[in-house]
Amino acid sequence: MSKRSLIWVVARVHAPDEGGVQTYVAQVAKAYARAGRQVTVFAKSSAGPRRLVEGGISLVDVGPGSLVAVYIRLALAMCRAWLRGERPAAIHACTWRAAIPALLFPRPLLATVHGREVGRPSRAAFRLMRAVLGRTTRIIAVSDATRRLLLDRAPDFAGACVTAWNGIVLPVDAPERTANVRPRAITVCRLVRRKNVPAAVKAVAACRNKDAALDYVVIGRGPAEVDIRAAIEPVTPELGATTMTGYVEDAELEEWYRSADIFLHPQIALEDGAEIEGFGISVADAMAHGLACIVGRDGGPGELVRDGVTGLVIDGRDPGALRDAILLLARDPAYRDRLAANGRSFAREHFSWDRHCSLALEGLVPGGRPGRRAGQEQLLGSLN
């Protein structure tokens, strides 16, 4: 097998289990395959152990188990492949922890950092993170916010760490919009504290108290569900309703995007900035689908959206700012549509899994195409 043709992707998670890293693993593998490379994914999921081959991607799923057991199984699976002569041109670990079993192999090693997993480790865990990342060839930060978080703690990694934004999961073709009697806002995410969804629920209720009719739908599941349900207040039907759908499949999610006008993602940083939203794939998807986005200023979403040009950026801890942003978009459809159109153009230009993987491998693997991310300011200047 040609050294130029094979990339190993290593992860501690995989579909059908849910999560942002699971999405990242799947999309990175597909991007490498589209580039003409053979791809083997070494991962674990609740559906394993199993072996699958689909679309030029081989999956070696070592199955669930304790942390140590999973690392050992991943290392053994890679050793078996190596001994069969399946030796990769490079190894892409989808988190720094997933890079641990890959350290055994003399190949360029890439490790992606997403956000909270570099901000939270302390003491022995922090020393382990430093040791692992210190042996990687390249560190890929999914946003400038994530890169800053890492370099604030380990500034000596500056030369090895590059920023490569994630891509868009859902189609970016112009959707056929559904006309609504009143504006509809949605949130799509895993329901955890840093997403700050209860604040969005309360802000929508405050808008209705000012006689702004608005429907709001929260899509997803997670540990913050109880707090979100507690924040939902009954309203009069003519002013709209707030509902929760739980988890939905991709086809239904696509319909929700087509039926919505506004996307709410007022995320905040927690633990003195150690836990952040590193990128915000759902924000990128919403922009690509032509929704006007309101995001918090903390973390990656605060750099994906330019305030007043491609969406609105607010302080997620300021209830009044969030309420006023929602009111503005609910009452001014022309402004809302302009932000949505600009955001969609920006998303189509910048959020590409192919570009992400090209940037990751640039200069490391023979035969790889150089990747380039067009400058934000150049595009945004054209949108003003």
Automatic annotation (TrEMBL):
Q: What is the lineage of its organism?
A: Bacteria, Pseudomonadati, Pseudomonadota, Alphaproteobacteria, Sphingomonadales
GO MF entries: hexosyltransferase activity
Q: Which SUPFAM superfamilies match?
A: UDP-Glycosyltransferase/glycogen phosphorylase
Which parts of the sequence belong to the Glycosyl transferase family domain? 182-345
Q: Which domain of life is it from?
A: Bacteria
Native organism: Novosphingobium guangzhouense
Residue ranges constituting the Glycosyltransferase subfamily 4-like N-terminal domain according to the UniProt record: 19-155
Q: Sorted alphabetically, which keywords does the UniProt record give?
A: Transferase
Q: Which InterPro entries match?
A: Glyco_trans_1, Glyco_trans_4-like_N, Glycosyltransferase_grp1
Can you name this protein? Glycosyl transferase family 1
